[in-house]
């Protein structure tokens, strides 16, 4: 578990940053917070999510924090580190919550002062809501936490990041390289959101809601989306996402071609493949996962 | 409610036909059954889903039934009516459970003897399983039931079909024309299944199951599919489904174009539209629906 004597500063008290603050304070850790919105800081102080807070980039808080967690959008995170990263003192360990990694990790590691270590991570626990007032609805218990170390990271920092995830209560903690993470997230998360959004945008479906079965409801649940955040995530991972869209589109057009040519056998073959893959997926899900997968050596 | 003195024959005791038999027998109606699989007929007799049954097209059962419900795939249904429809006696009311209507309704109405009336309907309560042994898992309580009359149908037959749905316990009973039904089903059901299947077929995703969040799980739940049935449903409605795929694909490619050109405003506009439409959908779902929408006059 995390060391009790270290002070944790959370920069960006949004949905996830706010939830981190709530859980860590609830477990007795010293948590401070910075957020540009004064109402958010007040909200967090009033509920004792944080014991000190500021709506400014507060040098005193940054200098005296032992651990810093960024709950900011990627672009804002990069800008913040560029402007105020020099305030962090050597020995500080830093992580984030970003849903994309390639554009974030190397630049942040380069910008931070010598002796300050950034170990990136991604708590896969987003929701369609945003802001600290919705933090209480976030549930880490069934969620994955992914640590994405680079060759610049020390075993100690990686261990701290995994301890953080364990303390926060994540179901599974895994390690991926930065590139593997972004490829994976392009498929299991971003492609799914691109599909749901496209399905919703394809036609005005309001008159059809009366007839909707579970299929449409399930496919479009994630079409409610925070547009600023998701535009960020998509654009930071655009090469991967475009590749995934193209692979998906090829499969869809193959199905369309089977329809157009009346190729019953071709359709049935696709249905058998999808059924087998989804059945394997269900079986895998039923197998209780190891709660904490040991870190594999990073290349 | 349905008249107590009428004998109901169910031809095709699959997932839905079996469930119809279970519910109707459970409510005290006289239910007979025909299924080409002897094991299925025995299973239904053993559990008193039916009081008489045959694994042959049994002329005696057909002649003496007052109401006939077809639980067959469209192609099998057409073939059955062609071969044995002449056995039905005038006054018999007939319905089905088919998920597509255009290719079924007019031919069946034309083939049936004078005085036998086919009033088509679609219980939207399919599952990823099939066969009578899974019937008990089917739940009509939250499901839609759609009656699709034509100009050949009488108010009495339409009323009977709605009574049937009410007796079976469907949440909502609505009326659509045959063409409207197939257009609607092409979008809310078939396009969603085409997307889920394509997503599953697009790449071998088995190694990614470890990292999957709810998005991928929700989008691919319906990728487990009965390939024979769904090839039928897709091919009988191929023009509508191809049209829906093309509309969806245009939206997806627009999103891809925003990514490729780095058009943040374009992405955000799509996200806002999808969020607004899905929010409207959620609001509509929260409004308690009228349990039984009066039939509108058919054109």
Textual characterization of the structure:
The structure is a homodimer of 299-residue chains. The first copy, chain A, is α/β, with parallel strands linked by helices and 299 residues long. Chain A has two domains: 170 residues, Rossmann fold; 105 residues, 6-phosphogluconate dehydrogenase C-terminal fold. The first copy, chain A, is built from eleven helices and nine strands. Chain A has a six-stranded parallel sheet. Chain A has a three-stranded mixed sheet with strand order 7-8-9, covered by helices on one side. In chain A, strand 8, helix 6 and strand 9 form a beta-alpha-beta unit. In chain A, helix 4 packs parallel to helix 5 and helix 7 packs across helix 10. The longest helix of chain A is centred in the middle third of the chain and has 25 residues. The two termini of chain A are 26 Å apart. At the A-B interface, helix 7, helix 8, helix 9, helix 10 and helix 11 of A face helix 7, helix 8, helix 9, helix 10 and helix 11 of B.
């Amino acid at each position: 578990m995390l060391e009790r004597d270290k002070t944790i500063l959370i920069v960006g008290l949004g949905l996830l940053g706010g939830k981190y603050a709530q859980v860590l304070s609830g477990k007795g850790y010293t948590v401070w917070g910075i957020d540009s919105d004064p109402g958010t800081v007040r909200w967090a102080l009033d509920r004792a999510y944080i014991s000190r807070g500021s709506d400014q980039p507060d040098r005193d808080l940054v200098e005296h924090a032992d651990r810093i967690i960024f709950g900011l959008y990627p672009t804002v995170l990069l800008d913040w580190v560029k402007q105020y990263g020099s305030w962090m003192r050597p020995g500080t360990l830093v992580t984030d919550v970003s849903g994309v990694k390639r554009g974030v990790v190397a630049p942040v590691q380069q910008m931070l002062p010598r002796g300050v270590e950034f170990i990136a991570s991604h708590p896969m626990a987003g929701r369609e809501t945003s802001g600290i007032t919705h933090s209480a609805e976030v549930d880490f218990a069934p969620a994955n936490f992914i640590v994405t170390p680079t060759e610049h990271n020390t075993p100690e920092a990686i261990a701290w990041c995994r301890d953080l995830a364990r303390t926060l209560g994540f179901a599974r903690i895994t390690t991926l390289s930065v590139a593997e993470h972004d490829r994976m997230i392009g498929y299991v998360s971003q492609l799914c959101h691109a599909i749901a959004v496209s399905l919703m945008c394809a036609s005005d479906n309001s008159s059809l809601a009366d007839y909707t079965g579970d299929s449409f409801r399930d496919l479009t649940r994630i079409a409610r989306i925070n547009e600023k955040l998701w535009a960020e995530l998509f654009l930071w991972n655009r090469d991967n996402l475009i590749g995934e869209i193209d692979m998906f589109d090829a499969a869809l057009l193959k199905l369309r071609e089977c329809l157009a040519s009346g190729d019953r056998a071709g359709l049935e073959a696709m249905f058998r493949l999808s059924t087998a893959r989804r059945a394997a997926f269900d079986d895998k899900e039923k197998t209780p996962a190891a709660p904490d997968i040991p870190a594999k050596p990073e290349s």
